[in-house]
Amino acid sequence: PTILAIESSCDDTSAAVIKDGKILANIVATQAVHEKYGGVVPELASRAHEQNIIPVVSQALLTANITKSELNAVAFTRGPGLLGALLVGCSFAKSFALGLNIPVIEVNHMQAHILAHFIDEPKPNFPFLCLTVSGGHTQIVLVKNYLEMQVLGQTTDDAVGEAFDKSAKLLGLPYPGGPMLDRLAQTGNPNAYTFPIVNMPNYDFSFSGIKTSILNFIKNNTQANPNFIQEHLPDICASIQQALIQTLMKKLVSAAKETNIKEIAIAGGVSANSGLRQTVQDYAKKYQWQTYIPAFQYCTDNAAMIAMTAHFKYLAGEFTNQYASPDPRLKISL
Ligand code: ATP
Ligand code: FE
């Protein structure tokens, strides 16, 4: 099948075309409008999606060299995400499909982050564990099949991407802070400082406490030396990054042990983090894991992963209809 897929859950407007499981185009328009606010402003995101969606879809079809009449279905992200942002993609997809008289497919954004692993080789073997780490989620997922997944544990407050972004903000780094903190950490000493993170029961996480510990750290150290942060920025970034990564890895290791699964994947925006990518590879040697780390373009939000998921849903005959509406809190488990 040939499918057009739309992603509009947060601040990226994206369209992709997939033909028989192969991605032919993946166009992403990022929204610069949020930079000056230091975070995503939902209302502005919706408006930018509204402006971007037609050019992005046109570009995707042009790049794929596919005409509208060749499409077999239109897919969209139903959730989780920002309601107003999701509405743009959902309404567009339904209208487009109605005009062409073809079916619509709804996709769960978190499931799609995981299925991004099936775009390129090497592909994980079932069952595998996926550490999904993004701006809104932190989950350890048992992936039994393409469309059969179980969340083993997740964050009870902030997502790890949020922890990266908020830590960066406290250090005075510009938005989006995660990638910037990563870059600075690369030249720092990860053992320079300690930032304790609470150990939650089972496979759950809690990252909201790190903000307070960073604030206290800044207060204590800038009293004697007001330039302390600027002078030690790489070491501070590396230490914060290490604390976050160690917390993730600890749970991932115990999940791998208890499920006896050695196929391990990471997904979501934070899987672009160089420290996490390296650590996962190091642990692969230590624990004889087969690890799967997505290409950078498929870590953060993109419609290619929505298209890949839609491809599997098409083959499984899972379609929705014109009554479909977004669900900002859509869950991954059945
Ligand atoms: P969700 O997928 O949970 O709905 P989202 O779509 O907003 O949330 P993604 O686009 O998957 O999230 O990921 C964005 C997050 O990834 C941001 O928090 C960003 O800071 C973080 N991120 C991206 N690159 C890096 C990096 N190199 N190091 C650390 N964090 C990063
Ligand atoms: Fe995402």
From TrEMBL:
Task: Name the residues that bind Fe cation.
Answer: 109, 113, 301
Give the GO biological process terms: tRNA threonylcarbamoyladenosine modification
Report the superkingdom from the record: Bacteria
Q: What is its EC number?
A: 2.3.1.234
- A matching Pfam family: TsaD
Q: Please provide, in alphabetical order, the Gene Ontology terms of the cellular component aspect for this entry.
A: cytoplasm
Annotated catalysed reactions: L-threonylcarbamoyladenylate + adenosine(37) in tRNA = N(6)-L-threonylcarbamoyladenosine(37) in tRNA + AMP + H(+)
Query: Where is this chain's protein located in or outside the cell?
Result: Cytoplasm
Recorded hits in InterPro entries, A to Z, give: ATPase_NBD, Gcp-like_dom, KAE1/TsaD, Peptidase_M22_CS, TsaD
Q: Where is the Gcp-like domain?
A: 22-307
Cofactor(s) this protein requires: Fe(2+)
Record key words, sorted:
Acyltransferase, Cytoplasm, Iron, Metal-binding, Transferase, tRNA processing
- A GO molecular function for this record? tRNA N(6)-L-threonylcarbamoyladenine synthase activity
Which Gene3D superfamilies does the entry link to? Answer: 3.30.420.40
SUPFAM superfamilies, per the entry: Actin-like ATPase domain
**What role is this protein assigned?**
Required for the formation of a threonylcarbamoyl group on adenosine at position 37 (t(6)A37) in tRNAs that read codons beginning with adenine. Is involved in the transfer of the threonylcarbamoyl moiety of threonylcarbamoyl-AMP (TC-AMP) to the N6 group of A37, together with TsaE and TsaB. TsaD likely plays a direct catalytic role in this reaction.
Check the record and name the NCBIfam families matching this protein. gcp_kae1, T6A_TsaD_YgjD
Q: What PANTHER family does the record tag this protein with?
A: TRNA N6-ADENOSINE THREONYLCARBAMOYLTRANSFERASE, TRNA N6-ADENOSINE THREONYLCARBAMOYLTRANSFERASE, MITOCHONDRIAL
Family designation: Belongs to the KAE1 / TsaD family.
Designated name of the protein: tRNA N6-adenosine threonylcarbamoyltransferase
> What are the leading ranks of the lineage?
Bacteria, Pseudomonadati, Bacteroidota, Cytophagia, Cytophagales
